[in-house]
Amino acid sequence: MEEHKAHGRERVEREVVFVPGGEILQTPEAVVEQVLLRLLRQMTKWGTENRMEAQIREIRKGTTE
Q1: Helix, strand or coil for residue 48?
Q2: Torsion over CA of 32, 12, 5 and 2, rounded to 10 degrees?
Q3: Beta bridge partners of 26
Q4: Per residue in 18-59, pLDDT tens?
Q5: Alpha-carbon dihedral sign for residues 16, 25, 17, 2
Q6: In this predicted structure, which of 5-9, 12-16, 50-54, 56-60 has the lowest mean pLDDT?
């Protein structure tokens, strides 16, 4: 793996390793990055849904007054 300095600290490049037999091995950093991206997408989805629900409540409140 290639190492270099990034923002004053060592950083290991993320890489995917293909091995005979077709298995894909990923570095721990790559796995963590994928999990965090999935979590971010889910949180964004929840946030969008919450905003939509709040807008619907505001519209309903406005029509009942």
Answers
A1: helix
A2: -150
A3: 16
A4: 667 776 777 888 888 888 999 999 999 999 999 999 999 999
A5: positive
A6: 5-9
What is the per-residue pLDDT for 15?
A: 67
CB atoms within 10 A of CB 34: 12
The pTM is what? 0.48
Instruction: Taking residues 1-26, report their average pLDDT.
Output: 59
* Domains identified in the chain, total number: 1
Q: Tokens 């406005």 appear where?
A: 62
Q: Tokens 């077709």: give the residue.
A: 22
Domain that holds residue 8: 3-64
Residue 24 has, within 13 A of its CA and on its CB side, a CA count of 5
The residue behind tokens 């290639």 is 2
